[in-house]
Amino acid sequence: MSNFIILKPKKDDVDRTLFKYLVKIFDNVPISRIEKSFRQKDIKVNGVRNNNKQYKVQLKDEIIVYGLENVSKPFERQDANINFKLIYEDKNLLIVDKAINVAMHSEPNCLDNQILKYLNYKKTSSFTPASIGRIDKKTSGLVVYAKNYKTLVEFDAKQNNFEKIYQFVSDFNEETIVKNSKSINGRINPKLEITVRLKKEVDKEKMVVDPNFGVKAKTIFWIENNKKYAQILTGKKHQIRATLEYLKTPILGDIKYGGERAKRLFLHSYSVKFSGLSEEFAEYNNQIFIAPTKW
């Protein structure tokens, strides 16, 4: 074949699989066409034909792909209006306090576009700064972004170790805890730990509790200094909102889940505590980051 493309991976490409690397770099090529390149052995790595999709790209590799053209879309960063509050930033992480009614993705002024503008991002590799987890459009508060690929892989894999706490406003009270808790040696736990099964309601973007079907969602609720907190032990869609509706104490402003109308949805991603990270990222273990509520 006469036409070919030579690629030389950057630092933020290292250890990405060859298939995912090419999908990210060739973002103007259908995935089915990239798969065809593997089947036809139209890819060379360091001079050797390579059709192993799981090959881990390395820094000094030379990758040649034959038979493709017009492979990349020109990168156009949206001129987003930055309205997040900066909580923390270093070479690996960017932690921000997202405003209410800002989508995470897929809208012109979404948080992703705000982050790319803030970082003055230019596409030089297969990596784009990405969030580690997400929160709903109507929810405010902490969102963590990885600024390089190695950080994204590490933190994304260890999310279940992190302590993620939310604040909310609802009729949830001590009576709710007593009513739904099991006593231990005659004493009621001051925190309500509850597991429900969630499934998507037919034809609606809403999760409902079903005792027999759906994914398990575990949450801890408690009250401290007249403030109400929820810690998610599983990261399921709308789990705090759906669980509080199930407890008959929906969040103020959460119309979708039975709450009273209000100026906003009173749910806020309040804090995150990192733990369980590998030695390379051990400096972040036990660090706590907080975005205070504004109500």
Write down the Rg: 23 Å
Number of strands: 15
Number of helices: 6
Overall geometry: elongated
Helix content: 10-25%
The CA-CA distance between the termini, in Å, is: 64 Å
**Total number of domains:** 3
Which second-level CATH architecture of the largest domain applies?
2-Layer Sandwich
What's the helix-strand series?
Answer: EHHEEEEEHEEHEHEEEEHEE
The biggest beta sheet reads: 11 strands, mixed
What is the average per-residue confidence, as pLDDT, rounded to a whole number? Answer: 93
Structural class: alpha+beta
Q: Could you name the CATH class of the largest domain?
A: Alpha Beta
CATH topology of the largest domain: Pseudouridine synthase
Brief characterization of the structure:
This protein is 17% helix and 26% strand. It has helices spanning 18-25, 31-39, 111-118, 149-157, 174-180, 239-246, and strands at 4-7, 43-45, 48-49, 63-66, 85-89, 93-98, 130-131, 140-146, 163-168, 192-200, 207-209, 215-224, 227-232, 267-273, 288-290.
What are the SSEs and their pairings?
Layout: E1 4-7, H1 18-25, H2 31-39, E2 43-45, E3 48-49, E4 63-66, E5 85-89, E6 93-98, H3 111-118, E7 130-131, E8 140-146, H4 149-157, E9 163-168, H5 174-180, E10 192-200, E11 207-209, E12 215-224, E13 227-232, H6 239-246, E14 267-273, E15 288-290
